[in-house]
Amino acid sequence: MFLVSVSGTTFPGLSGLTRRWWVHGGTGETPKARLAASKREPRRISVTQLIDIFLWEEKRKVDKMGCIKVAGNIYEVDLELVGQTVLLRYDPFYLSAIQVWYDNKRYADAVPLNLVRS
């Protein structure tokens, strides 16, 4: 085996390597020891909040027909937003649902008219 022949001794295993690498340079503590010593309560968030954190954001100007274009797809938005630049929040791997925001207010999600890429 290649790993054995490099040093001429037996391979210490992955756990031995990670134990040496997972020590903070400044404190000399492992993450597990540091967490155990912490007095702060871990904060839990919901799956929905976690998904929202990783949504992509882009600005688009709504055309006179009430449409926007994202990743080659055409979507219809609220006609009240015609001519406005809106903030779009979406998952790039799920283009069927795009949130529409304007002036810190959420509007109805954009409706796909021509979904080329989903």
Structural features, described:
By secondary structure, the chain is an alpha+beta fold. It folds into 2 domains: 11-43, no CATH class; 55-114, Beta Barrel (OB fold (Dihydrolipoamide Acetyltransferase, E2P)), CATH 2.40.50. 24% of the residues lie in helices and 34% in strands. The chain is built from 4 helices and 6 strands, in the order H-H-H-H-E-E-E-E-E-E. It has helices at residues 2-7, 14-21, 31-37, 47-53; strands at 56-61, 67-70, 73-76, 85-91, 94-102, 105-114. Strands 1-4-5-6-3-2 form a 6-stranded antiparallel β-sheet, with no helix packed on it. The longest helix is centred in the first third of the chain and has 8 residues, at 14-21. 8% of the residues are buried. It holds the Pfam family Mu-transpos_C. This is Transposase-like Mu C-terminal domain-containing protein. Residues 53-107 form the Transposase-like Mu C-terminal domain.
